[in-house]
Amino acid sequence: MRLPQIVVYEKDGRLKLQLEALAEQRRWALREARQPETCLAHLSRGGPAVVVIKAGRDLERELALLERVAWLYPDAAAVLVGDGDQPHLAGLAWDLGAAYVLLPPQPRERLPEIVAGLMGEKAEAEKG
């Protein structure tokens, strides 16, 4: 069995910093990807995975990555994180395959808890 991994797709490293303590405590791999191809390459290794995608300046690219993750790696849970209260973005993200959408008014501080919950589900499914 492959070690669980968290793959973070973002430009500034803030979400990765927020997840470092969780990954270290649980002994999960924490990988950062700044290109969609890198993100998908990490997922191709297999095993339980949660992908965290930061919705930012290139929304079309980020949503395309979300859709590709859901299509190519349906066992990986994808979380879309954004800064604005955008209900239309949340609905679109759900439609594209997000397992969770973290937008205001939800506090971003919930991200480690959300990732831990999703990873727990993925690890249990992998066990059988």
Describe it:
The mean pLDDT is 92. It is built from five helices and five strands. Helix 4 links the parallel strand 4 and strand 5. The chain has 128 residues and is α/β, with parallel strands linked by helices. 48% of the residues lie in helices and 19% in strands. It has one domain (5-127): Rossmann fold, CATH 3.40.50. It has helices spanning 14-26, 36-43, 59-72, 87-96, 111-127, and strands spanning 5-9, 29-33, 49-54, 77-81, 100-102. The chain has a five-stranded parallel sheet with strand order 2-1-3-4-5, with helices on both faces. The relative contact order is 0.19.
Low-confidence stretches: none
Q: Do you know the CATH topology? A: Rossmann fold
What structural category do the secondary elements indicate?
alpha/beta
Report the mean per-residue pLDDT as an integer.
92
Individual helix count: 5
Estimate the global geometry from the Cα principal axes: globular
The CATH architecture category equals: 3-Layer(aba) Sandwich
The termini sit apart by: 12 Å
Approximately what portion of the residues adopt beta-strand conformation?
15-25%
Query: What is the string of SSEs from the N terminus onward?
Result: EHEHEHEHEH
Name of the top-level CATH class: Alpha Beta
